[in-house]
Amino acid sequence: MNTVQAGLLTAVTFGLLSALAALLIARPARSAVVGVGIAVCGAGALVAGVAAMAGQVAWFAAPDLLPLSGVVFAIDPLGGAFLAVTGGVAVATGIYGIGYCRGGLDGRLVQCMLPLFVLAMMLVPAAAGVGTFLLCWELMALTSLLLVLAEHRRRPEVASAGRWYAVMTHLGLVAILIGLLIFAANATDSTFAALRLAGHHLSPGLAALIFLVTLIGFGSKAGIVPLHAWLPRAHPEAPSNVSALMSAAMVNLGVYGIVRVGFDLLGGGAAWWWLLVLALGALSAVYGILQAAIGTDLKRLLGHSTTENMGIVLVGVGAAGLFTASGDLTLAGLAMAAALLHIVNHAAFKTLLFQSAGSVVHATGRRDLDYLGGLHDGMPRTTAAFGIGALSASALPPGAAFVSEWLLLQALIHGLPAGVSATIVMPLAVAAVALTAGLAVATFVKAFGVGFLARPRSREAECAHESPPSMLAGMGLAAAACVGLALLPTLVLPTIGAVAGGVVGSGDPVTVTATTIALTDFAGSLSPLLLTVALVIGLVATLAAARALATRRAAREARLWDCGAGPLSARMEYTATSFAEPLQRVFDDVVQAEQDVDVTHHRESAYLVEAIEYHRRVPDRIERRLYEPVLAVMAVWGRVGRRLAPGSVHRYLGYGFYSLCALLILLVVTR
Amino acid sequence: MSTALYTQLLNLVAGAFLLTAVLILWRRELTAIIDVFALQGVALAALVGIIAVAEGSAELGAVAVGVLILRAGVLPWVLRRAAASAGVVQRETKPLVNVVSSLLAAAALTLLAYAVSQPLVELAPSPATHAIPVGMAVVLIGFFVLVTRRLALSQLVGFLLLDNGITAVGFLTATGVGLIVELGVSLDVLLVVLVLQVLKTRMREAFGATDLDELRELHD
Amino acid sequence: MNAPSVYGTVGVILQLLIVIGLSPLLIGMMRQLRARLEGRAGPGIGQPWRDLRKLMRKQRTSPRGTSEVFRVAPLLLVATCLVVAAVAPFVTTASALDPVADLFAVVALLTLGTVALALAGLDTGTAFGGMGASRETTIIALVEPTMLVAIFALSVPVGSTNLAAIVTSGLDDPAQVFSPVSLLAAVALIVVIIAETGRLPVDNPSTHLELTMVHEAMVLEYSGPDLAMVELASAMRLTVFLGLLANLFVPWGIATSGSVPVIAIGVLAFVVKVAVLGAALAVGEVFLAKLRLFRVPELLAGSFVLGLLAVAASFFLA
Fold it and tell me: Is the pLDDT confidence value at A285 over 80?
């Protein structure tokens, strides 16, 4: 039994045991036992994934377990990468969940679904047959749906979010089902190995159809525009550890599907497919971060940020595909390595961000940034954790995402693909990535600065207390991962580079030394560790110089500048809405916020104003333009259909009878 | 038993089977409908019994006895009790399709059943398979009763006709129908009848009558 | 990573000394030039150093309600400028830390400094701090595309974003300087520098009206040594940006070997180039008024188009 098999066996055993324990154990110990179980399961998956990336293989086939297609699992390096990411996220969220779920979320159903969700997410990259893949995918969707609905008794919006999620994930499943079944119909049987062999002989039109249909399904799961509407609805309403799992582990599987079907099973494909993927990725990145920059709900902001990051990953994947199609394999490997590294980085910092957001919600009960603030006093560790996550997410050095975006930019600027259209695409892609980086900086400055710094803006923020130790431990694990990936990406890059090279068929796209990342075949190197060390030395030197040269008098506390009018109240602080207002104005054509101003005049005179109420809503423009017409058409269709169902039992029975007779007559006549 | 006797008996019983179905369409009183249904149960049991004797299978004989008890005994008894609890003797006064048209429709359905069943008969010609169109016709007539009758109990009888026809076709095509399957189907039917019974009682308590046409008002 | 050579280390020390020592003088020279052109006597070139000395002697104040972020931000700002001054090729092309001397890394470091200041502005909890932070982050967000596309344009002829490589290729091929790619990229970068360092027409560094402030509003609450660090840092940022502009486009005079006269010429060339660019900027500011905040995106969009054209030109003329 090799490491991969051992790891997977541990993971599956502990996952199933935790699910069983959730049903049997009494409430006081339930969340602790399940949390530990999920952590061990995640650790097993992490070990198995890393071993698989290093080249060990494992497979498992049980042809009779499922009717018609059987169950077949096989792990290759690409699947191992996603398995490892899921495992890592599960470890951190498992420990976090011990403290978070105590209280309202330790019901039997929720605690049973958590390990099953993790298991399903682990098994999707391991599936090696169409039936197995769809089974695990659907299991993942169902368990996550039940988890999203966990708090539906406490808040009515949860039900609506659950409905959106259910409908969109199942429409995605139908698309993937159709695509994979068309593929399997043109192959000898439905295992991925057979599909791989058949993929080389498909006609271009059929291959394009399969790719496009599966892109719809997988893109929806990854939260890509225009099928992203479920993400900003489901993530805020789900419990925070579930949001972390969904954002950091589940949406990656959409990207996994695209890479698996496009690169592996269909064998690369035409350039225009990848141009489409790149365009969708760039659009999602810009749109997602714009919505995040303008929003004030902390968890919805993080959900939109997930759309943005998945968009950046798809820009990398699309670039890799474009370079493969034009024959530039080293660059393709570089772009794919950048995409995979960004997935790893995103998993680390998104877990941390959702965990700290959950910590804030746990302590204050509020999600709206406009009512938070001043949390650094009562929750210093959570503030530090969110700060680390925000630094990583904003793609600034010494954050984690800086390295992956650097790699992506290097891949994009070195590409000189043939064709005038591609010449326009690369600079626009660089511009899109740059715009998202700038807006991401704005978003996370807003989230961290308004949410955690300055003074509290509401009573709940004033009374915030620090989270329990298990939640802090979970956050600590994720923070350690963020910091490790930021300073020492050289530890993971060789493996990720090898996996990326394997996917596109090139050699290692990056060479690493202990501290430096260097590009193979191109001049360019980066050392995040040295950069951080230099920065720290600079800080220390500045501090020393300042202490030495400045006056020896002790610091005194002073009043903030209030123009002499008296102490500043919390109402005078800048809120998230006001912070984002210039951006909202600049992007008004895209955002189109709706504003209402209600002025209440004084009873006795219309010239005196008693109160002014200001409401601002930022609707999702893509939803309004794309979804509402579709929903309107369905409503009309439903109304027409109502005329078919007036309530008479006879009529319903009659439909059945008359259609049966008609069919039989048809049978007789056409024989 | 000789082949000629077998064929004659089989045709006789099949004819009785079909006739009872047509009679259900013809009679108006609920009690009469239920009695004719019981007779059909006897005919079905006889059909199975004849096949059992021809095959020399004791298992099939046991099934025949079971069918007799269930479809000629238990089910009509349940239906009679349901009809009696209504109090006044009910009559099917205004079916959706009047009696004359119903009978013509029954004839058309029988022809359709014959046309559709031809390939089945040609697959394995034997006296048993020649009777398959009868089973199909009873299925279609049962469906027709289900669609066009107003009283809940008449509809239930139509459903049971449907099931009788399916059972007959089953026994005629494959002479060795598993006991388990027959048992399962029968239990299913029993369950349906009981549920519909309960539903009917509840509906009467809530709305006063079970003339399903009056229940159109329920829809939104 | 190779150990830095002697002349590399010497170069780093010289660069740091020049940037720290002479950047306030650059600011002073610019102010003096503006004053003279506007018909005033002017305070003299050494005034910024006198201001720094005065601020260092004042008592440090710490506003009530602020956190560590407020206290650390000036340090971080100065530290990022120091790192960039140390690694970028100003006096010599041999960088002490070659893996850090990547153009993307350098501009990202400078952005980190601005972000620290924006967070400090938000940390004060005053309306002015928030306003300054909000405006500054909007400008950063809109400047990023232009900056990265201009870097893209610069890297295409060279095949790398390593600063030393770009400067060396400029030295090797003088005609490249006058190509359309360079000129367009230079104009785009000039607009970027004006936006990043907060000069007219994007921001007025000498305004007293809080509602017209961008950078000054963020640092309104700083006083004493903290304010001295912020002022020094903004002077260093301007020097660093102008130095990058000078050496990326007009690299002659930079030291490529280790002998003393070459290094001396390198120092002199750097000082002269930055002084000339600073003087040109000062003269230009005399004739410009500050743009309304919501006209700034138009300016940045225009520079973005120029950057995009630069990239397209580099592809077609490659």
Answer: yes
Torsion, Cα of B159, B164, B170, B171 (10° steps): 170
Choose the closest CB to A538 out of C82, C147, C162: C82
| A406 contact C CB<8A | yes
B217–chain A Cβ distance below 8 A for any pair: yes
pTM over 0.80: yes
Type of residue numbered A356: S
Q: Euclidean distance between the first and final Cα of chain A, in Å?
A: 59
Judged by CB atoms closer than 8 Å, whether chains meet at B216 and A664 is answered as no
Q: How confident is the model at residue A317 (pLDDT cuts 50, 70, 90)?
A: very high
Taking the CA of residue A554 as centre, how many other CA atoms within 13 Å lie in the half-sphere pointing to its CB? 2
Other CB atoms within a 10 A radius of the CB of residue B55 amount to 14
Interchain contact C3–A (C-beta under 8 A):
no
Residue C318 has a pLDDT of 55
Q: Retrieve residue A74's tokens.
A: 């096989």
**CA A88 – CA A38 distance, rounded (Å):** 11
Contacts of A74 (CB under 8 A, 6+ apart): A57, A58, A59, A60, A126, A128, A192
Cβ neighbours for A612, distance < 8 A, ≥ 6 positions apart: A597, A598, A599, A600
| Residues B29 and B89: beta-carbon distance below 8 Å | yes
Q: Which residue of C has its CA nearest to A575?
A: C130
Cα separation, C174 vs C163, whole angstroms = 17
- Tell which of C54, C115, C189, C316 to mutate to test the A interface (max A CBs under 10 Å): C115
What single DSSP character describes residue C292?
A: P
Domain spans of chain C, in order of start: 6-316
Distance CA A97, CA A245 (A): 11
The DSSP bridge partners found for residue A617 are: A594
Q: What is the pLDDT of residue B179?
A: 63
C25 in Cβ contact with C19 (< 8 Å): no
ipTM passes above 0.90? yes
CA of residue A271 relative to chain centroid, distance: 26
A12-44 tens-digit pLDDT: 999 999 999 999 988 888 889 999 999 999 999
- Per domain, the residue ranges of chain B are 3-218
Q: Do A647 and B212 make contact, defined as CB atoms within 8 angstroms?
A: no
